[in-house]
């Protein structure tokens, strides 16, 4: 059974969460062929229903089969439906709720409805939990107040899934009951809308374009925790990872997971395959780049910089293998597996200063304490307990002996050989560090995609991690094209110019942490260039070429890549920069930068830096910028982004005297770029402008 598109939905039973992305809202994420979109935030169920309906319709219209997962129970424990609807058909329950749930973005009738349902059953229950202040007839506030309703507490699925909540609980931390009541009407309407094109697992055979399955992201909680980027909300990351994981699964495994006996309570998709899902979610294998990875949507003649960047972000993935390196060799590499702490840091409670340890707190006023013999020093724990009321000489980093939780600084103490005196008060725990206050054992400390910094090596070493699973270095081939080019240092005629790009781009790439492979200069000769590309792609993971990228007579790079099939010429709305040629040669990406050195360097920093970082296994990165007052004036028209060579002097940003893109010396003069947005702008002295240091382009 194959699906082209995977849509994962993290539902919510609560009210509108507002325009700013938040947790506990509805998050959706789609993946196709192993490539995942960014998670989408949907503020309430009305917006979500419309978004999902449109999404499914669009995929169907494009002839793509969709597997859509929703994170709430599709059914109730056996026996519920019969009493509620007179039938065991789960869809009768869906329709029952669809007919009765009233859902506005700021209020709904779910608690009243649950009370009304409870009244249909003997005893008290099964629903419980009331999120409202007012009491609701027949809806107990506590689960323990239920009795004699005659239904099982859990479905088979919740029995099996440790930590899954029963569908009866409507409120309180972790409760899922409300999501179910507020979700089933939406599924009921999706079914009616898509009719025969939509089938529901595990109630029906999935022989139609859309399959709906019940998911529970906590199944892969371990992988979620290990891979969640700091800046991404957990709910968002869960759907992202699940969408990616399912889309990367071998179709046979997927079929196996879907192949369960019909079950009218519903079940959790993947519940019998947790290890396999987790392994796939954490897998460092990435799918090969797709032939259409550089294909831009048609229509836009000038592509905004932001759209071009988003395209690269969504379509490029790591292309290098992995290796395990000792820490001393791992700096600058990209993590291919999460790092977890092997032990706590600090491993035991210890002294933060040199001084005297005792059992705190010490009250106000002069304190005297007898000293025990001996001392506690780092590396040699004091073997006995310190009796109450006594103190011990202790040095920084020494484990606190039994009976000690507080340390008084030696400078604050008058010490005699057998006694100390100091002025209180001193809080319990003063000048002492708790075990694990920094990191606890088993904690995920660094995520996949992180470029290891010197500090990271310290952090890892502190918790006993001696090596790291990282991506192999990305090998980037550097190539200049053009008959007019000569090597610097050699003789050149009038009609010839020196190759400025290769040394410049090579150094840039090395600075970014990649391995540079010098592919030399290529003449304006198609078959020779093809040979060089063949040789280059055999030795490199990616090629960064400059020159010959436009559509002119001598633009052989474009012409060749075009013939190879996977080619796109991006006309980017920016200055400097002409078209960017992107393509695959022997399945390896080739970036054709403009030949003009200023444009080549700016395009390399703006586009190649983040793109190469993704190919190298890093996370997507936006260059760090600073707002700095302008020491210049300028006006620009709307419709393109501009990058000016700039440097900071006296806290102000000044720009190079000429914007002429032929003046390569301006790149040396500058220490960074000023980025001016796509809109029309007039900049006066003192206006804040965005300055990006050259070093920020690939941190
Ligand atoms: P092209 O994109 O090949 O049309 O080149 C645009 C301009 O940049 C021409 O003036 C080229 O001579 C110049 N150029 C191309 N490659 C380089 C290079 N590697 N170093 C310096 N200038 C170059
Ligand atoms: Mg040329």
Characterise the protein shown here.
The structure is a single chain. This protein is α/β, with parallel strands linked by helices. 26% of the residues lie in helices and 24% in strands. The protein contains 17 helices and 37 strands. Strands 1, 2, 3, 4, 5, 8 and 9 form a seven-stranded mixed beta sheet that branches. Strands 16-13-15-14-18-17 form a six-stranded mixed beta sheet, with no helix packed on it. It has a six-stranded mixed beta sheet with strand order 25-22-26-30-29-27, sandwiched between helices. Strand 6 and strand 7 (107-108) form a beta hairpin. Helix 7 (221-227) packs across helix 8, helix 11 packs parallel to helix 16 and helix 13 packs parallel to helix 16. The structure holds adenosine monophosphate and magnesium ion. Adenosine monophosphate binds next to loops. Residues 481-482, 547-548, 554, 595 line the site of magnesium ion.
